[in-house]
Amino acid sequence: MSTTLTAAPITNSLTAGMLPRRASLWLLLTSFAVTGAFFGVLFAAGITNDFNIVGTVFFGVLLFCLLIWSVSRAVEGSRKAKDRLVTALVALAFTIALLPLISVTFTTIVNGLPRFDIDFFTQSMRNVVGPGGGALHAIVGTLLITGAAALISVPIGLLTAIYLVEYGRGSLARGITFFVDVMTGIPSIVAGLFAFALFALITNDPGIRFGIGGAVALSVLMIPVVVRSSEEMLKLVPNELREAAFALGVPKWLTVLKVVLPTSIAGIITGIMLSIARVIGETAPLLIIAGFTSSMNYDLFSERMMTLPVFVYTQYMNQGSDMQAYIDRAWAGALTLILIVALLNIIARLIAKFFTPKIAR
């Protein structure tokens, strides 16, 4: 009589009692699908006026916390389940902090898409009193004024940071640092009033409005941000690099130019991009000194110039007979401004990634 031996099943002790690698992701997507379907049904039934994206995200993450804990407890045991639950609660806290941003972004996208068309980017508001028109004049004005502000702020801010880090000593450096700190907290409308008063005194014209004035106002807000960000990046450069250059007989100015700046250039450019993104949405100073117009204006030194923040404000506040057309243009302008800021942040990230020295990566 023959006996047949059956091999015991092979098990991997390292993966036994563990959830698959992407189990958390699938549970999160399932949670969002469930809560999204729930709020979608409420919207379709007319119980709510619109789709509740904030409720979908919040209750989706909350449901995920419950699912990941229960599934992990059943498969991995109570100890691992507690670890996953605490991690999920941290994610829930982070989600709560992001809810205002999610709400604003979603609302802007939903309301801005109806007028996010070719006409919006190829036409101005000249002779338009109802539907139609666009924000080409505002987009051009925003790019010109912000670009001029960057040309004014970047050299001043960068040179100031180099002085504070490499040369600054004594009372002068402390005084500059103090005034930079004060300028960091200055209200934006004060910068606009400063630029208006400055050019009104220079030109002896109490009603002056032009683009370069808006650039000066924005530069007042940009300079302290550029100084602070550049100063921190320069401080991160190891002193050993400076000492090695000095040991080779390299002058200090050449060490700064050839060693310090190339090493910190990625962080400096990132700080500059973020400072531009910070001021590009300012409304009050531009409303005071740059004014607003419905026509194209490519000359920074002559006549009023429209910008996107002021365009959004005027479209919403000065509604005509067709109110919906003005509101749609305002939302489309806000969406365009958000996309420009997002693009600047993406560019800053790419610069930081590709221009950072390899030894520091």
TrEMBL record:
<dbReference type="InterPro" id="IPR005672">
    <property type="entry name" value="Phosphate_PstA"/>
</dbReference>
<dbReference type="GO" id="GO:0035435">
    <property type="term" value="P:phosphate ion transmembrane transport"/>
</dbReference>
<dbReference type="InterPro" id="IPR035906">
    <property type="entry name" value="MetI-like_sf"/>
</dbReference>
<dbReference type="InterPro" id="IPR051408">
    <property type="entry name" value="Phosphate_transprt_permease"/>
</dbReference>
<feature type="transmembrane region" description="Helical">
    <location>
        <begin position="25"/>
        <end position="47"/>
    </location>
</feature>
<feature type="transmembrane region" description="Helical">
    <location>
        <begin position="208"/>
        <end position="227"/>
    </location>
</feature>
<dbReference type="GO" id="GO:0005315">
    <property type="term" value="F:phosphate transmembrane transporter activity"/>
</dbReference>
<keyword id="KW-0592">Phosphate transport</keyword>
<comment type="similarity">
    <text>Belongs to the binding-protein-dependent transport system permease family. CysTW subfamily.</text>
</comment>
<feature type="transmembrane region" description="Helical">
    <location>
        <begin position="84"/>
        <end position="110"/>
    </location>
</feature>
<keyword id="KW-1003">Cell membrane</keyword>
<feature type="transmembrane region" description="Helical">
    <location>
        <begin position="53"/>
        <end position="72"/>
    </location>
</feature>
<feature type="domain" description="ABC transmembrane type-1">
    <location>
        <begin position="139"/>
        <end position="348"/>
    </location>
</feature>
<keyword id="KW-0812">Transmembrane</keyword>
<feature type="transmembrane region" description="Helical">
    <location>
        <begin position="176"/>
        <end position="202"/>
    </location>
</feature>
<feature type="transmembrane region" description="Helical">
    <location>
        <begin position="135"/>
        <end position="164"/>
    </location>
</feature>
<protein>
    <recommendedName>
        <fullName>Phosphate transport system permease protein PstA</fullName>
    </recommendedName>
</protein>
<dbReference type="GO" id="GO:0005886">
    <property type="term" value="C:plasma membrane"/>
</dbReference>
<feature type="transmembrane region" description="Helical">
    <location>
        <begin position="330"/>
        <end position="352"/>
    </location>
</feature>
<dbReference type="Pfam" id="PF00528">
    <property type="entry name" value="BPD_transp_1"/>
</dbReference>
<keyword id="KW-1133">Transmembrane helix</keyword>
<keyword id="KW-0813">Transport</keyword>
<keyword id="KW-0472">Membrane</keyword>
<comment type="function">
    <text>Part of the binding-protein-dependent transport system for phosphate; probably responsible for the translocation of the substrate across the membrane.</text>
</comment>
<feature type="transmembrane region" description="Helical">
    <location>
        <begin position="259"/>
        <end position="280"/>
    </location>
</feature>
<dbReference type="InterPro" id="IPR000515">
    <property type="entry name" value="MetI-like"/>
</dbReference>
